[in-house]
Amino acid sequence: LVQLIAFYWPYLLVKEMLSSTSAAGTLGLIISWLVAYGFRALGNYATRFVTSRPLLLARSLILSVVIGSAVTVLLCLLTGMCDPNQTGVAMVVFATLLYGLIRLTDGFADPIRQWFISEAAASERLATMFSIASFFALGVSAAIAIAVAQLLEQGVTVSAVLITAAVFQLFSVPLYFYATKH
Questions:
Q1: Gap between the Cα atoms of 79 and 160, Å rounded
Q2: Exposed, middle or buried by CB within 10 Å (0-12, 13-18, 19+), for 71?
Q3: Cα–Cα distance between 163 and 178 in angstroms, integer?
Q4: Would you call 121 exposed, middle or buried from its count of C-beta atoms within 10 A (0-12, 13-18, 19+)?
Q5: Contacts of 95 (CB under 8 A, 6+ apart)
Q6: Dihedral sign, CA of 142, 67, 39, 19?
Q7: Gap between the Cα atoms of 78 and 92, Å rounded
Q8: How many Cβ atoms sit within 10 Å of the Cβ of residue 170?
């Protein structure tokens, strides 16, 4: 989901929110990316406060996934409601902050996911299973990317793709509950 957002956010910002002024769109895009990567770095830093508490890790990851998905849907809905001819600077700033929150939750969750992966890889049997699962996950990701490209060519909006991805990301939450039990 975050990769889709990182890839399509410039499209959302420039084409749908700031289509009337290209100079403002370019400046907004630069500021948006600076804010996003600053928030991501802050999320990476915040992870160190929960890594010493294994029980808190999974709960924090679950909360991060849920918040990231909710903010993604909110960002897409906000972008869809904006009229490019009437969008003010305040709306662009608000959307940029929402995008920053998405990157913050990703920056926070990614090190925790990596911790879970390293724990699973400690056992040889689990490492083999993880490698097989990663192989299939990459294949599924490639198939989804091809399907998204086809949907975009058919006229499906970027916002619809991102909202769908955010909803599907919520399906990963039970896996993190399972990780806390084992």
A1: 11
A2: buried
A3: 25
A4: middle
A5: 13, 17, 32, 75, 78, 79
A6: positive
A7: 10
A8: 16
> Per residue in 137-154, pLDDT tens?
778 878 887 888 788 789
CA distance 163 to 168: 9
User: Where do the H-state alpha helices sit in 122-157?
Assistant: 124-153
Cα of first residue to Cα of last residue in the chain, in angstroms, is 26
Cβ atoms of 161 and 148 closer than 8 Å:
yes
Find where tokens 């889709």 sit: 4
pTM of the model: 0.67
**How do the pLDDT tens digits run along the chain, 182 residues long?**
555 665 556 556 555 555 555 566 667 677 777 888 889 899 888 888 887 776 777 788 888 888 888 888 887 777 666 665 565 666 667 777 888 888 888 888 888 877 777 776 666 666 677 677 778 877 887 888 788 878 878 988 777 887 888 888 888 778 777 766 65
- HSE toward the beta carbon, residue 20, CA cutoff 13 A: 9
Contacts (Cβ under 8 Å, ≥6 apart) of 130: 117, 120, 121
Q: How many residues are recorded in the chain?
A: 182
